[in-house]
Design brief:
The protein is 16% helix and 42% strand. It is of the alpha+beta class. β20 and β21 form a beta hairpin. The two termini are 56 Å apart.
Length: 776
Amino acid sequence: MAKKKRRTSRRTKAAGAVLPEFNLALGEFLALPEHLEQKYSDVVTEIFPLKASMSRLQDFCDSYLNLDKDAPLYFKPAVPWVLMQVVDYGQMAVTSRNLGWFSQHELAFGVPLGCYKKEKNKWVFTDWAMVFPFIFVDNPLSMSGGRKIYGWSKSAIKIDDTLSILEAGSARRLVGISLVTSGTNYGERSGTEEFLQIFQRRPFISASTAVSDLLGAVPRALSSSITAAYSIFETTGLFPLGYSDRDIESLRQVLARFYGLVNSRVPGSFRAPPERTTSKRPSDTGSGIAPFNVITMKQIRDVHSSSAACFQAIVGSKMQIERTIDGGSLFDPLSGDMSGGIYINLLNTPAQPIVQMLGLETSEYSSVGKKPAATLRPMMPFWLKMDLSYGLADSQYWRTNVTGWTVGDTLKQIPRREIAYLNVGSGASEEVSGPYHFPQMTLRVMPLRAEKAKLQDLLDRYLENDFFKFEVAGQIKDELGLHGVVCLIGANFEEMTASGDPDTKYSDRELTFAVPVLWSEKRNSRIKSPALIPLYVFAGTDWNAVTLSEVYGQQSLKSKLVSPDNSWLVDAVGPRKTEPLVAVKTELFPELGKSQEAKNTTVIEILSASGAASRGSIANYLKELGLGHFLTGNEFHSISLKQVMDAKDCTLANYQAVVALLRQFTGRKDSGGNPTTGTLAPLSIKIFDYPTFPIVEVLGLIPETRDDTGPSPVFTLKPIDPFWVSGMMVGDTGLEMCSRVGTGWRRNPRFDTRVSEMRKASARKPIAIKRTGRRP
């Protein structure tokens, strides 16, 4: 009842401007808590203030946040500093539902901002905030989760050296960090490129003491170091080369505001005359440190164009330091070297142009991994050990390709236009854009029995819209009656090319639970067209998982396909004796309410089984399954729901679209130009059931047995007459069939035109079918 009341109150704020619920048809496990609260325990961070150009920082704000004159907020750099952080998150947990926890390391570059709101045609200062356009992590769960709600733009890194923050000693290399470049081919080890190195020539000082007031002792000790350094500068008049007293004072104020380093000389909140904040200062509770605002740019690529966005938002949220456990300066104020003897060598790559974009001042030039790099010297670096909390966004203004800037739920509908996707930030260019060409693809189709009524209900809820309907097309008849069909499709493809990067070859292995359907107009259901509805996709490469999820909205998971004998992944005929063939592992929280660590968990096992392969007609069987287009060469669609979760209320969606990706097998495998096909040996499939991922229940699959002897139930299913088909496939960039922002669905005229053209051209002569058992 609480959830319904909350949603009702949200919607009544703006009559006629209702946001739809976030679609959970594929499982309640996809939902996030209504009052999301994340706790980060024992966080150890080293913070390195880096001097930067104010003009460059303003250019960055204008290109990344100040997108046009109609935007309701305006951002300016607050100070000529960028705060680089190297963080070790000991434990990251979603406490609202006790989902579980994971840990990670992070490298982030934060820009302190001044936020302004327009009042009477004038920009009025409202508050301070931090934006992190470049952020790098070494845990895939963090990369996907933070992007879904807040829009955090993250890239993968590898920590080359264990952080030695708590090992005071002589000069040492603090850390080495490499960028992880995902391989374009399945099984290809991810490449690494040395990216950043931090060296220190002096030990650091710990502020931890045995006093009872440790919470206040750490900030006071750090502030004393900073104040002592500042006092020396004031007394001697000898500020570090290139720094003015105003620069140092502004840095002190930044550290006071965002990290609570407070004493008599540093105000409790960041105040920078002559501008005055209109926001209320939070009460001193918990750590006594006011929460600070975090700004993120959230954007989603449009389906039909990789250079366009279907959604963009400026999201505001708050980070709270709950407890300061320990900390200390990384410099000695009496030494005269306010860098603490620290040198940071940072590679400035075209993909991550941090130095250039943020205008970081360099002291000299060096090399990282034998490539040119900039050397940066921090000012008054320090370290902290603390507990943090982070919740849902408290503000969001957003726009789509059919609505103007929206604050809250009051939507301003406009004619469809194109919004430029911002290729700025650490994780802005991971997707591979179409059209796609697959010169060599093999599909292993494993038809599974499912409860037809339950499967149809799932499709009705998943793809609910005002214009199109989707009917379960396949059927399997056995001694127990007539059943619906869910196909587990194992695919491998080689040397795929994409128009967005035509010189690169891609390959992958993936397993997909897909439903063959016929889609039609609700107003005229006589004309039906074939399609596949991918429900869960387990992709073997990062680029494939990200593209399917970010661009097309599919529920794709980066997974590891473990095969004792790799031949089954590429040889469709495979072995005839009983043995394990493939196991699929992906990272999950195994149980709810147990506060378990996320781990790579087995979700599917495919085993060979005893018996003989089917001798029936594959062509006839494909028609019964609703997959005749695999052999005829007719075009078909892959259809999914793409949606954007509201950052303030994760039970609602800002944008939803039914997306169709046009595909066609054009067979070039034999002299006749036909796709080749053959039967597979009998198989057995085990699906591991987890409360966080109940595949069998959601899809209505009919198992043969259930084993409850282990920690989780294991269902055994029998594929009915599995087979393989091989050929060449092409796919377009995809189009929205229809979409909605608010409650009203809109048709896409471009899709209607494309379908009309496709149907006119469908009177082609069917391709002759050739059945063969030879290896693809």
